[in-house]
Amino acid sequence: MGFDPACFDRLRINRSAVERRAATLPARRSVKKDHQAAWLLKAISCIDLTTLAGDDTPGKVRRLCHKAMRPVRADILEGLGVSGLNLTVGAVCVYHNFIETAVDTLAGSGIPVAAVSTGFPAGQIPLELKLAEIEASVKAGAKEIDIVISRAKVLTGDWRGLYEEMRAYREACGDAHVKAILATGELATLTNVARASWVCMQAGADFIKTSTGKESVNATLPFSLVMTRAIRDYHRLTGYKVGYKPAGGISTAKDALAYLVLIREELGRDWLDPHLFRFGASSLLGDIERQLEHHLTGAYSAAHRHPMS
Ligand SMILES: O=C[C@H](O)COP(=O)(O)O
């Protein structure tokens, strides 16, 4: 849609009310036993299995891709009676340099490759380089592009500038899905988080995403509450469903359940699907697999028995 500040310029977010509501979320639904296993399998299907490290290598990315295709050990799936589920993660998320390796390894699996782009994580490079990076990543086979917004545009109230930047990213992505990373931990206020969510949605973001995983504060339930309410209101206004991706620091099955409860409560069942919800996470899958094994055997195995790559 066009840039419409009337949708967000009167927004004010009451931080203590948000924090109070967020604190009740983990206790809002008690998900136990078989239901818990089912929710955890759903969580796996929504993971963007991620490696974004300076020491990434083609071998590490290939191993991660194999984990993405078979995220849970066969004996655990068999024990749970879900061997026929063909469970995979939602996507594999890598730096540009590893797109081709990931695309080759995942060929035939139906799992898309997501690439972080636009000078991830800080985004402090010229716009033309950002657009060139997106175009190169799409050309290399990425079906999803995770862009970072310019935090300075938010912090200086340049909402039109942010809209134009996001529109340019949207166009450069072509048919690839675009996820807008707000870097919420660097936006100073929850009101800014809400406004930035609106601007990115107006400019055509398919998903809004909390964080790069590299800020000092990454995904939290309060940020998620603010962003999912913005998604809900945008859907009411336009009929368009924007996806949500919390990312950074989500590493336990318990965290994953709290986020799924939040999505169920705030956005409803339609959003509990990889088309509209993803976790950006590098280590979450290992803890979920441990939890599923515990569900079967009553014992926790060592984390090293569930390597990511
Ligand atoms: O987008 C994904 C994040 O970079 C992953 O963060 P994490 O390593 O804290 O799970």
TrEMBL record:
Task: Give the metabolic or biological pathway.
Answer: Carbohydrate degradation; 2-deoxy-D-ribose 1-phosphate degradation; D-glyceraldehyde 3-phosphate and acetaldehyde from 2-deoxy-alpha-D-ribose 1-phosphate: step 2/2
SUPFAM superfamilies, alphabetically? Aldolase
The protein's organism comes out as Marinihelvus fidelis
Task: Please give the GO cellular component terms listed in this UniProt entry.
Answer: cytoplasm
Task: Output the SMART domains linked to this UniProt entry.
Answer: DeoC
Q: Which Pfam families match?
A: DeoC
Q: Which reaction does it catalyse?
A: 2-deoxy-D-ribose 5-phosphate = D-glyceraldehyde 3-phosphate + acetaldehyde
**PANTHER family registered for this protein in UniProt:** DEOXYRIBOSE-PHOSPHATE ALDOLASE
* Family the entry assigns: Belongs to the DeoC/FbaB aldolase family. DeoC type 2 subfamily.
Q: Name one GO molecular function term.
A: deoxyribose-phosphate aldolase activity
- Keywords, sorted A to Z: Lyase, Schiff base
Does the entry feature the keyword Lyase, yes or no? yes
Record-linked InterPro entries: Aldolase_TIM, DeoC, DeoC/FbaB/LacD_aldolase
* Keyword Signal appears in the UniProt entry: no
This entry's Enzyme Commission designation comes to 4.1.2.4
Which superkingdom is the protein from? Bacteria
- GO biological process terms on file: carbohydrate catabolic process; deoxyribonucleotide catabolic process
Q: What is the name attached to this protein's record?
A: Deoxyribose-phosphate aldolase
